[in-house]
Amino acid sequence: MRQFVKFGGIIAVSLVLLTGMSGCGGGLFTPDKPASEADILLGQDGHTLWESNLQYVKIVNRDMAGLANEHPAALTAEELRTVLSSLYVSKRVVLKQVEDPLFSIGELQILSTAIANGLGQAQPEEDINFVTIGAHRGAIAKERKTNSGRVFISGGRLNIIFGLVHEEFREKDRATGQEIDRRLHPLLPGTRLADSKPNIRVVLDKGQSYYLDPETGKERTDWLVIDIATVLATAKERKEGDTGDVSPELLEDVARSKQATGNLRHDVSNIKEILFELSDEIERLKQQIEELKSKP
Q1: Element housing 71 (H / E)
Q2: Dihedral sign from CA coordinates of 8, 242, 117, 131
Q3: 0.70 exceeded by the pTM?
Q4: What are phi and psi of 10, to 5 degrees?
Q5: E strand or H helix at 48
Q6: How far apart are CA 115 and CA 123, in angstroms?
């Protein structure tokens, strides 16, 4: 079970980390969230709920016929933020397997506000599609990663079909240096039609499961089914030990800071081990260079 931070003596330390690192010009814990929810909701005309360059949250038609969605659905932005912030991915960084939040702070604010608003407007034959680009922890520094998905409520549960999960976002092709034409290489959300087979999978917690395809009998690696009530109850239970009059946003930031700090310590330790292992090879190469220099 994923361990959540207990609030106590770590508050001061975490706040110092948050302040100090963000003051270093885009440090590890620098918030990337928009100025306010008003910025997200601005201009929500028609089916476009939020849009910024390649990123968007939109109400779209279902991608295939079937059991009607349970829309419109009443889900607050705060509830959806709690649900989305419960999602983590497992990935290998240097020599260790670590868990990182699926969505950055900025992505959480955008998606919780816009999707909750969209679910309240959507009709049974409509889904919510999204594409976001967030600043996520990399091996050394933050990296831009893309998340995309299709969201709907069915069977009393929140369904998210992912197209991309923590996919590295690049504006130019790594090999050619040419700008990537997004008309030919779009950032696509998931679809009911086929498994997108993302490279990184979401780590399951209480109230979360992968969709079992009734036709094939196989589990979809891109389709997450979330029991909203269970996830909200679990989050509440895990916060019962916290003390102090602290906002949920601050609790979340501190928890993420602690997770990131722990992961960073692991990475530094691993880098030291790698350098130690390479020291003999470096010394050998230096000796070869000296020998070559001494030859006539």
Answers
A1: none
A2: positive
A3: no
A4: -80, -10
A5: strand 48-52
A6: 13
SS (H, E, C) 188-257: CCCCCCCCCCCCCCEECCCCEEEEECCCCCCEEEEEEEECHHHHHHHHHHHCCCCCCCCCHHHHHHHHHH
End-to-end CA distance of the chain: 66
Bridging pattern class, strands 157-168 and 202-203: unpaired
pLDDT of residue 200: 92
Q: What is the pLDDT of residues 228-286, one digit of tens each?
A: 999 999 999 998 866 555 555 555 655 565 555 555 554 544 454 455 455 556 766 77
Q: What is the pLDDT of residue 140?
A: 73
Tens digit of each residue's pLDDT (9 = 90 or more) over 4-57: 333 333 233 333 333 333 333 333 333 344 445 544 444 444 489 999 999 999
Residue whose token pair is 């310590």: 265
Token readout for 193 is 């039609």
Contact status, residue 208 vs residue 202, Cβ threshold 8 Å: yes
Q: How far apart are CA 69 and CA 158, in angstroms?
A: 10
Check whether the bond before 101 is cis (ω within 30° of 0): no
Q: Is the pLDDT of residue 58 over 60?
A: yes
Cβ atoms within 10 A of the Cβ of 280, count? Answer: 9
Q: What is the pLDDT of residue 24?
A: 38
Whole-number Å distance between alpha carbons of 110 and 85: 12
Separation of alpha carbons 56 and 158, rounded Å: 19
Rounded to an integer, what distance in angstroms lies between the CA atom of residue 87 and that of residue 24? Answer: 28
Chain mean position to CA 198: 13
Cα separations in angstroms, 267 against 4, 17, 75, 190: 21, 17, 39, 32
Angle of CA points 119, 54, 204, to nearest 5°: 55
Residue 70 CA to residue 79 CA, distance in Å, equals: 17
The enclosing H or E element of 150 equals strand 142-154
